[in-house]
Design goal:
Strand content: 15-25%
Distance between the termini: 47 Å
CATH superfamily: Vaccinia Virus protein VP39
Strand order of the largest sheet: 3-2-1-4-5-7-6
CATH class: Alpha Beta
Structural class: alpha/beta
Number of helices: 9
Helix content: 25-40%
Radius of gyration: 19 Å
Largest sheet: 7 strands, mixed
Order of helices and strands: HHEHEHEEHEHHEHHE
Number of strands: 7
Number of domains: 1
CATH architecture: 3-Layer(aba) Sandwich
Length: 258
């Protein structure tokens, strides 16, 4: 229980992104790649009980976590549909085309082999003039710091190598506008925010390494012993508010369906 409490994070950045893009009360939203339900909860709270969310993911285990998460919060206006985006969209065949006000997701396009085609096909379920909004990361501009922080840099290097090994597009944040445009959408705006280590809005680097250690080890990037050493060094490095360490850049872009 203590570890689960430690791994909770604030999703206010995503909430700001979605509100700025236009997600609002009463909307019917299709979410691509719900994972453990963090963004699902944010969307559900923004649209309220008068709205509706249909969340998609191919990972049944993660979807179960998401369902439990929302049930604990008393949120009932969310439907979960298992869907492997690379194998077709037959799971959505019972839903009428143009029945959603928006399509949204976070850190999912970067993992898709054909994100443009996926958006193009999913947009059939979005109303004309409807919103398409995605938050993605860029790993090419971080870390950012003015003084040496070797343990932090090693942690960032491991995380970058992990997502590269998993086939992710590490510059998806920068690629968001062109991806939306090539999917046949009317691009509106792109914005970005930097995540600063130690400010509490995201997982700390040691928490991330703990959370992702099985993926790092299975990718052959580091051994359990090496990870334990870096995590210990990070945990024993006291937070210094005078030292600024940029650990991630989150981009958000949105567009409208013609």
């Amino acid at each position: 229980m203590e570890r689960n409490e430690k791994l909770k994070r604030d999703n206010s950045m995503t909430q700001r992104f979605l509100k700025d893009a236009g997600i609002q009360e009463g909307m019917r939203v299709l979410e691509l790649g719900c994972g453990g339900g963090e963004v699902t909860q944010v969307i559900a709270e923004l649209v309220g009980a008068s709205g509706n969310v249909v969340a998609l993911d191919r990972n049944l285990e993660a979807m179960k976590v998401a369902e439990d998460r929302l049930r604990e919060q008393g949120i009932k206006h969310v439907q979960f549909i298992p869907l492997d985006f690379t194998e077709g969209l037959s799971s959505l065949s019972h839903l009428p085309y143009e029945s959603f006000d928006a399509l949204a997701g976070r850190r999912v396009l970067m993992y898709l082999p054909t994100p443009i085609e996926t958006l193009r096909r999913l947009s059939r379920w979005i109303k004309s003039g409807g919103l398409v909004v995605f938050e993605e990361i860029d790993s090419t501009m971080v870390p950012g710091r003015t003084s040496a922080m070797p343990a932090h840099d090693r942690a960032m290097d491991l995380l970058r190598k992990m997502i590269e090994a998993e086939g992710a597009n590490t510059s998806m944040g920068f690629d968001l506008p062109s991806t939306l445009i090539q999917a046949g959408l009317k691009f509106e705006r792109v914005s970005a925010e930097v995540v600063f280590e130690g400010q509490g809005t995201q997982y700390s680097l040691s928490q991330l390494l703990n959370l992702l250690q099985s993926r790092i080890i299975s990718a052959g990037i580091a051994t359990e012993t090496e990870l334990t050493s870096i995590i210990s060094e990070l945990d024993n490095t006291p937070y210094n508010p005078k030292v600024v360490y940029a650990s991630a850049i989150n981009f958000c872009a949105w567009a409208y369906k013609f």
